[in-house]
Amino acid sequence: MEGPTPVSALLHAATMVTAGIFLMIRSHPLLTYAPTTLTLMIIFGALTAFFAATCGLVQHDIKKIIAFSTCSQLGYMFYSCGLGNFAASLYHLTNHAFFKALLFLCAGAVIHSLQGEQDLRRMGGLVRVMPMTYISMLIASLSLLGFPFLSGFYSKDILIELAWAHYTVPGTFAFWLATMAAFLTAFYSTRLLYFVFLSKPNGYATLYKQAHEVDEVMLWSFRPLIVGSIFCGFVIKPIFISFGAPFFLSSGLNTVNGLNVLMDSEFLPFYIKLIPVVFSFGGLFGALYLYNSSELLYTLTKLQMSQGFVQTLHFFFIKKWYFDILYNRYIATVIYEYGLSLYTLGDQGLLEFVGPQGIFNQLSNVPSLRTLSVTEQYNLVLTSVGVLLFLFFGLL
């Protein structure tokens, strides 16, 4: 679904796209008594985080990359609800709103500056033209990938640590998938920044001659989001996941098991806490090294063109694991054909035959009814109504 960029900033940050997570959080009294459902939420949440990260890795549309990152972050929040830590999920949802809104607004500024261009392959070199937008998008991207001491670092790392501290097979499964998703998130966020701002200009000269920094009104909309992307995680952490906070005690947003998991996550070994950070930095520096090394990039491109497996994998990711094809072929088309048959046999068939138009057509073919006077037709209608009322009350 596509829309104007400011609308995307609102929907992906705090409104429609995150409504499903908010529903899960609001439903925590019911979910607490459904352990099987919580286990499925852990598995599917972790799969969603990894799935969306792989899709965002190969996209070329600047807004699609950010949209897939939203889907990936929702996977983190979803499996956190499955772990029983609904407050931690709400904590990441709040932090996510700041840097995701900032990312979309910065993307809109870039698209506006390039006269509607959204393809990364036709951008580059905009750091000289749009320095404030670059700084804003850099802060938002670093917060998204979990750079230390920014908002995303606090909540995202806590969600990954909670998965390990669950000490179950689904929890360990979610931990490693979320860690791989963190690596991919850092990689495609750096890729986005590189292609838009740091690489050599690849677009049309006429667009670059008109490219400019956005006006002061748009830049002012960035500033509160920049502050939230930097400081929100640290400032509101005691409200959501501190044991003595009034909100924490009164909300009931954590199950007993969730409280135990949260306590265990505070005392995990240091090397376990370091794993997500190392993977995030690995994605960041890996993307910088890859796209700054023309020889390595050329080798990988040639490998993609010559090796069938690499081509298949790339096509698999860019086609979103064929979910759209499977959905359209085996769900949407089947439902459409079933509805069409019901419409043909029901609305245009049986219901049309016994409905007012069908009755009128049938009675119009009776010759004797055509010669009735107005009084006789009136008596016939009253008699029919009387019979219907008799049948109705007789059945009651």
| Low-confidence residue ranges | none
Query: What is the global morphology?
Result: extended
Overall SS class: mainly alpha
Largest sheet: none
- Percentage of residues in DSSP E strands: under 5%
Helix and strand succession? HHHHHHHHHHHHHHHHHHHH
| Spatial extent as radius of gyration | 29 Å
Alpha carbon gap, first and last residue: 51 Å
If you average the pLDDT, what whole number results?
A: 86
**Quaternary structure:** single chain
Q: Give the helix tally.
A: 20
Helix content: over 70%
Give the total of beta strands: 0
Instruction: Estimate nothing, just give the exact number of structural domains.
Output: 3
Describe this structure in words.
It is extended, with a radius of gyration of 29 Å. The longest helix has 32 residues, at 323-354. The chain is mainly α. 80% of the residues lie in helices and 0% in strands. The model has no long low-confidence stretch (mean pLDDT 86). It has three domains: 5-318, no CATH class; 323-365; 370-396.
